[in-house]
Amino acid sequence: MFLAPLRRLRLLAAGVLAAGLLAGCGEHAPSFHATDITGADYGKSLALTDHQGQPRTIESFRGKVVTLFFGYTQCPDVCPTSLSTMSEVMRQLGPDADRVQVLFVTVDPERDTLELLAEYVPVFDPRFLGLHGSPERIAEVAKEFRIFYRKSGDIGGQYTIDHSAGTYVFDPEGRLRLYVRYGETPENLAADIRTLLAGSR
């Protein structure tokens, strides 16, 4: 009476073993320090103007790893820290840094004019680009990337903005791949970018 269950058990074990062997023969997914969000159903579109007055989309940078951060020029700590981190990442990447594009999207379009972004963003690295749009367009892009931002203390224009502090990373094919939490080390971020660049060779 135990033969049928025993046979099913043996077949199940054989199936598990075969699946394990097949998995071992396949390609391993790359390992990242940041959160792998490959296949995310958001962050698919971006259409803004850079601080040089040129319209930009993610497709504008095909062939490069793109990092995307939302902030504002009068941010007291998080934004300059994140841009400084990316500056160090670029230094660590050496020649590969020319295959990386850092984008800074303002969530304060009323104060962050193209001229101000052109003065602020390249201070961290001349290759970095600030992106601007109407308040309505910025709100649309922020929603597309699930970015939260809100003015605080709006008294005579002297306000701050609470906002999401993570960075998104696209691979050279223009696919959203990683979410980097605020405070990640330049070493780990540089390693993740190298992995994405290596996958595109």
From TrEMBL:
Keywords: Copper, Disulfide bond, Metal-binding, Signal. Pfam families: SCO1-SenC. Residues 1-18 form the signal peptide. Disulfide bonds join 75-79. Cu cation binds at residues 75, 79, 163. GO terms for molecular function: metal ion binding. SUPFAM superfamilies: Thioredoxin-like (SSF52833). CDD domains: SCO. InterPro entries: SCO1/SenC (IPR003782), Thioredoxin-like_sf (IPR036249), Thioredoxin_domain (IPR013766). Residues 23-198 form the Thioredoxin domain. Belongs to the SCO1/2 family. This is SCO family protein.
